[in-house]
Amino acid sequence: MTTTRVARLFTVGSLLSILVLAMLIQARPLPQITVDEMISNHEDYIGKDVHVRGSVKEGSVDEYGVIFVLTGNEHEVIIDASGIAVPDGLTEGTTVAVQGKLRIGDNGWEIDATVVQTGCPSKYEAVE
To answer: What is the mean pLDDT of the chain?
Structure first.
């Protein structure tokens, strides 16, 4: 009876180890790119998940704070974050990272955001 219990524990432990390993292999993070890199190579990214970084354009955040324009040095993309919770740190002129699918819309390039990340403001405040 002891051998069957040890065998079952070994089997369950092995299966859990394989499952965890498989999850780690599949969970590759998206590489973060700039708005300019994404638009310059849009054929590689259109219809795919992207992780893009840029600055929130002055005057572009809508009244609800869920649609805004992310700019690079030469290009810009409209971000639609209406389906997710947007962090409080999202203000015009700040650098943010957005994950979502790139598509071409009526007004140009758009990303349907699944994640919007802002930097922690306390990291950048001057110490008095």
So the answer is: 86
